[in-house]
Structure prediction request, 155 residues.
Amino acid sequence: MAAAPAEHAIVLGATFPDYLSFEKAFHEYCEKTGYVFSKDGKTVESANRKIRNPALHFKPEFRYQVITFQCKHFGDYASKGKGIRKFQISNKIGCKASLRLSADRQKNCLEIRHFEDEHSHPFVTEFGEPFFFTLCLVGLYNCVPVSRSCKGWQL
Prediction:
């Protein structure tokens, strides 16, 4: 007999009654896999302002009408500069892993509409086999200050 799928598992087509239940499941997924995602989305407040009929408004518990999560290494780096400041560090290495969660009025839930789970890079651990990868990309990136401001630095 096949095992029943875990409640609120992160799989394509999974549904969630509210954003908090999705957030909990997604946090567990990220801890289990070890990958880090960035997010971008449209809030239900923003979407509801454009909908005149209050009966069609999204529930506030959804928090987002649509939200996309992408691996922090998603996409390819494309320089937009003129080459004056060379050797800029980027986390983009061509990974395609992403997830899109959308609010569905008919089902009255949040649903995972797109889920690409294949990463094009190894799991980044602090120690272990992919440590060299960590040292090159993450270690150097963390050594660079977030801003170029020198406030508070003692030289």
Summary: Confidence is low (pLDDT under 50) at residues 1-6, 126-141. The radius of gyration is 20 Å. The CA atoms of residues 51 and 104 lie 15 Å apart. Strands lie at 15-16, 37-43, 64-71, 98-104, 109-116.
